[in-house]
Each structure stands twice: as C-alpha cells, then as structure tokens.
What we know:
The complex is a heterodimer of chains A (225) and B (592).
Chain A: E1 10-14, H1 18-30, E2 34-39, H2 42-50, E3 57-61, H3 71-81, E4 87-92, H4 97-105, E5 110-114, H5 123-132, E6 137-138, H6 140-154, H7 161-171, H8 176-183, H9 187-201, H10 209-221
Parallel strand pairs in A: 1-2, 1-3, 3-4, 4-5, 5-6
Helix pairs in contact in A: 2-3, 4-10, 7-9, 8-9
Chain B: E1 10-12, H1 26-47, H2 59-78, H3 83-103, H4 110-116, H5 121-130, H6 139-162, H7 184-214, H8 217-223, H9 226-244, H10 250-263, H11 266-283, H12 285-294, H13 300-310, E2 316-318, E3 333-338, E4 346-351, H14 358-435, H15 438-465, H16 468-473, H17 475-485, E5 489-495, H18 502-523, E6 527-534, E7 540-546, H19 558-569, E8 573-577, E9 584-590
Amino acid sequence: MTSQEPRSLRVAVADDAVLLREGVAQILKAGGHAVVGSFGSAVDLVDRIDAGLQLDAVVLDIRMPPTHTDEGIVALEQLRASGFAAGVLLLSTYAVPSYAVRALGSGGGTGYLLKDRVADSGTLVDAVERVAAGESVVDPEVVSLLVAERTRSDGLDHLTEREREVLTLMAEGRSNSGIAKALVVSLKTVEAHISRILAKLGLEDSPADHRRVLAVVRWLEHTDG
Amino acid sequence: MADGRPHGRATSLPIPAPAGRGRLPWPLRLGILLAAALVCVLSVVFGVVQPGIADGNGLPWLVGHLAALVAAGLIWWLAPTAAPGWVIVGYALAETAYMWAYGVHAGWLWPLLMSISVLPGVALVWLALAFPAGRLRRGFDRRLVITASVYLVTYAIVTLLVTPNHVLDASHERSRYAVIATGDVADALGRVHAGVMGAFAVVVAGVVLLRWARSSGAARQVAFIMPVAFVLWLVIGVAWSLVRLGGWPEHLRLVVEDLNAFSVVLVPAAYATGLIRMRTIRARAVDLVQTGQLSETGHDRWDGAVKTVLGDRTARLVWPGSQRTTDRDPRGRAMSSVGDADAPLVYIEHDAALLDNPQLLRSVSASLRIMIDNERLTAELRHSLREVSRSRLRIVQAADEARRRAERDLHDGSQQQLFSVALRLRMASDAARADGQLVLADGLETTIDQLASAIKELRELARGLHPALLAEGGLVPAIAELGRRCTVVTKVTVELRERPRQLIEATVYYVVSECLANVTKYSGASSCEVVVSDHPDGGLRVVVADDGVGGADPARGSGLRGLADRVDAVGGTMRVESPVGAGTVVSIHLPG
C-alpha cells in the first residue's frame, strides 16, 4: 500500500440514490476524508468539475438518470478526455467484466467496485484511497468471474496454483507490495511470480501498475485471445 | 335506388334443389316412350300395308317419328318441366292416326283418324316457341298458338263433315260423318287449308327470323339452333303442301315427301340439343369459382368471368350499397339477386333473355355465392390470425416491459435501500467496535453478512428479470456475459451494424440464454458457439451450436417449444438441427 500517510482526500459522490449517496459520504467522512460534493447525476458532477471543483477522488455510480444505462462510464470517459487526473471509483450493482475493462482503459487511478462492497469494513475507503493514489481497483467478484471463465476455456494449466492466486490479485489491481502482504510472502517472491506469469501469458511488464492490471484483465476477458 | 338497387324488379335466384325432371318416375316415362314407339311401328306395319298409297314408303316417316320420340326422352331427362316431352309424344301419336287411317277401312273410324291427323302441326309450333322454358312467355306466341289450334280444330271438324271417301283408297267404306256426297268440297277446302297453312308458316317463320336477327348474343346463345330448325321445318312443310296441290315432277314429289317425313325430328332434336348445350354452358360456372380464387383483389375480374360464363357481354355485377345505376335501356334487362332475396350479396344485371336459362343463372348465382362466402371467410380468417399474432406480440411486449420495470424498481428501490442499510449497519458496528462494545459489533457484523447474502440473491433475481447489462450496453456485452457464465466453454460473436429494437434485443437475449441453459443441462457438450449477426435477408440471425449429444426435439421439450413460441411471437422463425450424437444447432431468424 502506498497511501500510508493519513492525508485527507477531497472526494465527490455521484449517485441518484440519495440514501446510498449519503451513506457513502458518511463512510468516507468516518474514514477521515472530506466529501466536498454530492450529486444526483453524472452530468451535474461533470459540470462542477468543469467549473473548477478541485478533487482527489470521485465515487461514481454507473447506472444513473437519464438513460439508466452507463452514464457513470460515459462521465468517466468525458472527464479523462478533458484531462481530469484524480481517482475515479465506479460503483456498479452488477458485476460486468466488460465495464471493468472499459473503466480501466480510460487511464490510471480508476476503480470498478460492486455496491455490495461499500458495506465491507474499510473496502470503500481503501478503494478510494487507492484510486486517488493512481492505482487501479477491480472488484474481486469480477476478477473471480473472469478467472473462472478463463480456467474453463483453457484451463490455465500452464500456471501453478500460487501463480493463479497472484494473477487474481494482479487483476484486482493490487500492487506488488499489496500482493506480498495478502499472500504473506516477500516482495521478491511476488516479483518473481509476476514476471513468470507475464512471460507465460505473453504479456509485457509495464512500469505503470495500471497498465499491467489492464493487460491482465483484458487477457482474462478475451476467452479466445 | 337509395340502397343501390338498380331499377327493375330483381329476380331472386335462391339456390334450388336439383331441377326436377318431370313428375313421372323414369320407368313410366320409358314405358310411355316405348309404347308410343310401338304404336308408330305398328301403324306403319298395319296401316301402310297396301302398295300404291300416295305416301309410298313408310320408312322415312317411321324413322322421323322414332327419332322425335328419342328426343322426347332426352328432353324429359334434361328439362325442368315435363310439358315438352308430352307434346312430342302427343304429336307423334296424333300423326300416327294418319297412318292408321290407311289401314283401317271401317267407315266410322278412318274419318276420325284422318281428321285428328291435321291437328299436331301446332304442337311443333308450340315446342319451338316454348323453348327452352317449356312454356310460352310472350303474349304474341300464346295468341299465335291458340289461333292456330282453334283454326285446326275447326278445320278438322269441317273436314270430317265434308269428306265422304278416303282420299286415295277406294277400298275404304264411306265416311259415316260426311254430310255431302262428293269429295269436291273437301278437295277445295284442302287447297285452301294448304294456302292458309303456308301463309301461317310464312308469318311464323318471319317472326322467328326477325326475332333472331334482333336478339342479343345472350338470347342467341339461349335460342341456339332452334329458330333455324323451326324455319327449316316450316319451309319443308310448305313445300310439301305445295307438292300435294299437284303439278310437280314425280321424283321431286318423292324427295319432298321423304324430307317432310324426316323433318318432324328437326324441332324436337333442336330442343334436345339446346338443352344439352345449356347444360354444358352451366358447367362453365365452375370456371367462375376458379376466377374467384385467382383474383385476390377487387371484383373486376369477376365481372369479366360472369360475362364469359353467361355469354352476355352486357352482364355485370352490381354490389349492394354501390351507387352505380345502369345506363342501359331497362327493357330487355333483368336483375338476378345472389343469396337471400331480402339481403342479397350481389345482383347480376343481365340480358332478360337469360331468364330462359334459369339453371345457368342459378349455377352462376351459386358459384358467386360460394366465391363471396369464401372471400368473406378468408378475410375473416386472415383478420383473426392477424389479431391473434398482434395480441400475442402485445403480450410478449407487455411481459417484457413488466420485467424491465420490475428490475428497474428493484434496482432503484429495494437494492439501493438495502445497500444503504448495510452501510449504516457497517458504520454502527464500526462505532460499536471503537466504543469497545464488541458483542454489539459482532452481532451487527453477522447482520451485515446476512444482509450481504440477501443483496446477492436479490441481485440474481433482478438479473433474471431483465439483465441490466442488456439495457445498459446492448447485446454485445450482454451475450458475452451469458457466454461467460455458461459452464460449457462458449465462444461468442456478436456483430451487428446497429442496435436492434428493445423487443428484438430482449428476444435475442432470452433465446441465447435459454439455449445456453439447455446446452448446460442436456447437451453434454465440451464447447459451444454463439453467433449473432445481421441476416443477409434483413433482420438478424442467431445461431447457437454445440458439439454435444444432439437429439433435441422441439416437439417434445417444452424449453425449445417455449423458445419457438417466443420467436414466433415477434415474427421470427426458428430451426433446430439435432441429429443424435452430432450436436445441436439452433438457428433463428428475427425481424430487424
């Protein structure tokens, strides 16, 4: 984890469900962060940011008015296109891998989390802090869906069990140290696993963490790739 | 003519029972004909036995009369009324009296037979004028026949009274009825009679020919060769009368005698062949039904077909409620209604002459009625089919909409509330833990876990109702998601130029989802492929193929049956190929 310093983040929340929006705000406040904006639609959020609202992170519901489809992702893409560099955490009711790929594809500091997760102890605050720090976050359920499906199609036989665990954590957006911590192994061991996995999958290592996550998630998603 | 009914009284033509063929049962008719034939034969054998009689050979006479009796049999068989047959039989028998008069020498009998034999000529006049209805329709005709009858009866009585001796045969007894001694008066009367009959024949022939020349095609079709036969018979009769006046070469006289004998068959034969021809014309009414089936739109072709079948180029159909009025001279026109007289389906406006062929009109009427009924029923059937498929589509759409709405309500309502409840519980448990109330914190966390699994279940339920992904991202991510969740390795290709309508999208999703569920449950396949693409003929094509055990039968499995129903409801088609042991391919074509 890179965000050890107890810095208070300026966060905005956009969700059409008022209760949830306020709940998220309270969780963030309880986590020591400042909620400086609360919006009922993605358009309002984008307008305020364009008007100069300074933020470290945004929590953004995907499905919102007016079309109730993918407003959150569209807003994310608009923000990135206009140079918005702060962290963006997308919330989704359903686990949709293609959304995760799309979200990550917009750039670093992006996360994709199921709404169920907001009530997990510390998960939401942790995810917000990670995207604010430029990391990528992918919901474990999405990753397990992808890995299960990938395992069905080509068995992932060329990976050891430990390598598969590492791959899963990589796909969730964990940094090397995060993976080391989760598996209770040394950083060196993790690095060794990672380079072997990337070699086996034919993926290039990238200095930017989020590129690695994107590559892994994409590889997982493309069954026939 | 507010109701569109053109002027003139419409003749109603209800569908009749098959036309009666005379009231007598056929064995009796046959017996009467055979008896009449026997009388004719015997009259020649026993009547004309002596050589040297004026008429010489009885054979032409016999042939002519037997042929007339055959014609009478045909007419009895074909005509709706029995009268013409009786008239011919009566004619033949009355003529026979003339022959008997040669063989019977008794003075009380031969004069009677001789005088009777002047009567029957009027029978053929009646026959010719009554064709084909079997009765005299015109007042002129009736007066003509009555006049001729009165004249002939008078002449017969007068001849009876003034003829003392048999014409040529001296062996006969003197007539008991003669009031004068010599035959001079009878001879003179005979000459006058020949002249009168000649004049009468000329008048009748003239009338018939004039009528023929002025009649319409339809009338000629009905009359057929009757006028020709009738005039020919009259001409021969006149020639014979002239010959009897004397002064003609012997060979010419014999030829005319024979011709006259044969000519008695002309009118009966024309009557019979006319009836046969009308019968074949009636058969053409069947063509009408074919026309009705051929022409799906409009009734213009019906008009043409009716003209052809009736042989009346002026005929046409007048539909009730139409404001068409005839521009034709109403005289000589007739209206026949088809169907119920009070509420006819259609009127046929035609030449009045066709009323003489009522069976043809009835056949045409019956055919038209069938055509109209058929058209009506077909239209009703199409209409109900259209309604049924529309309502089925509406049901599918409504169900789809309801599911979409239910999912939306779950998403926007219950799910969000549960999320925020979970959130608050989390904050409470965190606070409790920070406060050192560990028991409370643990209890709250257990509640949170239970809530989390409830949320998960609710989410699966909502996803089953209507996948959010379909609404959000369309078919590409939604179908990919289905493939991903399928336990059999599934390759998904979705290539569409544009997003289909909501209903079609939902149908594709439902279909693929059901197919993949079948693949998982029954196929035992190791791999599966789903292709959704634009169909070259428009709309889109969905193919789900697996390499499993095959043997799927849409007729039995309710799953495939339900799929087919769903596809059918939106106007698509579905084909299942599933040979045992060779996998299953479900191909679906949906409208765009």
